[in-house]
Amino acid sequence: MEVQDPTKVRLIDAAGEEFADKGFSAARVRDICVRAGANGAAVNYHFGDKEQLYVETVLCAHHCGMDMEELPSNEEAGPAEQLRAFVHGFLSRVLAIDEPNAWRHRLMLRELTQPTPASDVLVREVIRPKFERLLEILRRFRPDDPDQKLYAFAFSVIGQCLHYRMARPVAERLIGAETLETLDLEFLTEHITTFSLAALERAASEQDRESPRLIEAKPSL
Amino acid sequence: MEVQDPTKVRLIDAAGEEFADKGFSAARVRDICVRAGANGAAVNYHFGDKEQLYVETVLCAHHCGMDMEELPSNEEAGPAEQLRAFVHGFLSRVLAIDEPNAWRHRLMLRELTQPTPASDVLVREVIRPKFERLLEILRRFRPDDPDQKLYAFAFSVIGQCLHYRMARPVAERLIGAETLETLDLEFLTEHITTFSLAALERAASEQDRESPRLIEAKPSL
Amino acid sequence: MEVQDPTKVRLIDAAGEEFADKGFSAARVRDICVRAGANGAAVNYHFGDKEQLYVETVLCAHHCGMDMEELPSNEEAGPAEQLRAFVHGFLSRVLAIDEPNAWRHRLMLRELTQPTPASDVLVREVIRPKFERLLEILRRFRPDDPDQKLYAFAFSVIGQCLHYRMARPVAERLIGAETLETLDLEFLTEHITTFSLAALERAASEQDRESPRLIEAKPSL
Amino acid sequence: MEVQDPTKVRLIDAAGEEFADKGFSAARVRDICVRAGANGAAVNYHFGDKEQLYVETVLCAHHCGMDMEELPSNEEAGPAEQLRAFVHGFLSRVLAIDEPNAWRHRLMLRELTQPTPASDVLVREVIRPKFERLLEILRRFRPDDPDQKLYAFAFSVIGQCLHYRMARPVAERLIGAETLETLDLEFLTEHITTFSLAALERAASEQDRESPRLIEAKPSL
DNA sequence: AATGAATGAGCCTTCATTCAT
DNA sequence: GATGAATGAAGGCTCATTCAT
Q1: How many CB pairs under 8 A join A and B?
Q2: Tens digit of pLDDT for each residue in D146-175?
Q3: Could you list the residue range(s) of the whole structural domain that residue D88 is in?
Q4: Does residue A31 sit within a domain?
């Protein structure tokens, strides 16, 4: 029933915003302290230096706030439903941008494209479990495909989702902010799930036709 | 037909590498000058300041080196072939990472996620034409879909491709560098084209049946 | 007969080591506290500030631990024996370096070369009595010499002894640590006493003959 | 005929004064820059950081200014004259305190008692040659003594000289500044030379009598 | 009596920029 | 056209000190 250290927490919260907005090198520890309402030496007192603050901020990003499980889906549901649940859960975090603690998502996205030593833990504890979960779902559609193919499927699903955060600023300029707003969580969940199901449910025989390099060599499978 | 100032060119080239590697704020003008074999005051002499150097570097990234129209697809080909050609062309740039001038791609990718004032021109002159071209292709598959839906299709295609650059560091850790190598240009062109065609070629009637809120009602799948 | 505050004592002991090793400004109060196993605010709590801690440490250096009067020489002994006893006592402290409380000696040596306000007391209570004692001894050799000459003799004796602490690091590099080890307390007591006696016992008449500006005149030598 | 860089030279000069006065850690680079009339970033521009400035300052201390050779003594002079010349030359630097460039001496004295990595060069290039020179002189007095004994003689000579710099502040308080002034270069040269000659010229037979530990064991030699 | 959290002054250093040549 | 020297602003960080408990 102990009250958690408010200064340190506020510091991490402020650092999260700054790091997510500006990146590590452009973020100023002074700004972080001001934002946290703390003294300019506070980060050095609590974290040693800027880099350790960054590490702790990234770790906190998925320890404290990323337990937003997308799992309302029962395991007994069909694979399509599981995929839809996965996409929904994934997108819900990808699209979260205005809510409090949104910096956690933005910061983790930064780690995806520009990994730092801090992202090792991130991959191990957050991303890999999620990736394995997706692979399981996909394997129910394509039990005979090699891993390589499954990976490509997984990346296709993930890539579609992530794109809405990664390239959001550009997307806004391309189709306008209002139109982009209409591509909301429900719409995109439906779209991406359907889009992906079409490929996954296509008969394996059809699938094989598509490999131009192996047409003669691989007759029936 | 004058030979361009070699120092200025070397400067932009060096700046491109630095900016692509480290981002704007983490890049050091001194490092850029050293890399270009120029004096420490060279960027200020040639470009005024760091920011203008960045702008010119970004502009050069698609003016000088983005002779990106490697699309050998004839207009008379079927839409599937056109899509394949588009994906192939897009992926070829996305996957280019080791070749000289690779910084141009990496730098533009940075602009996607963290747009700067310099990216306005980028969107207008490079990205939008490409996006429109993709929309044309997709519209031949789905002439009756609203724009909103077409945008979603386009983003699905683009997102799949871009993911292999955006999240490449993480992907390497997830499936291993060697396995990731096997997902090469040919393989991914085939995979993404097929994956997308499956969704695009599915009848619109099927498409519409998939209401996201009919989970229990969903009959067969 | 109260047991003295153990924390305060440990603090002074730790401070002594730090100050003797690094000097006043390079010593860190945090390191002192850590070394004393006390809280980081302990020195400010017990001593007010760093400077007062230094003063108290210097004072303690000769109050508590400088039971330096190990001179077993009887007053009735000849002056040569008294000189030997003095040199022995002085050297024994000068050469003490590894024993516990060695910081007291090292710290006082620092005060010799870089005096601080704290060294006023040191001179008055420790150094001057010792100096006067040496002058008494020397005066028995040279009752007719002026003070100026006696001072020079005294400084010659003291200078020879102190050199083995002052320039010890350099001496080690010059002749090697092992060879320097052979110049131990007994050896040096003998050497310095003999060396000095030779000068002291030389007849004053001889002494005066040695005019520095009679280089050619110098007869035999 | 090139004019030497004034800023860098002024910087070293100012640094010399500061370091000699306050030691490395207590010296402020800002003060050094102010004293040199240079910008606060000047030391970092010219030397990289404070530590490298210190090293260069120490090196400069004996490269540029320590070529004040005490050698007006001809090699053909007797050993006593050579010793006198050595003492004179050594003392002249030891006592130099008010003249310009005096910081060189004070700084090197600091290195004697508190050696830093920078003092390696100092020992090798400045101190050891001087020490060897002294040993040569002494060996002419005592050709049969072992090295150990010669070292002790050398340290006795050096110790007497150095004491007037090492403990000068304390000596002032002990005998008064005015009296200390009378112990000037000429007086001390004479005193220390005579003092040392008495010991050196004492017959070897006498010398041996003095070793109390070997009285019975070492009868005649 | 003693501590952990927090502070503020100031230091070293970095870095883009300018200036004289 | 280009450079080396020099600068000013600002950043991260250290450290002694203070305060509430």
Answers
A1: 184
A2: 999 999 999 999 999 999 988 888 999 999
A3: 68-210
A4: yes
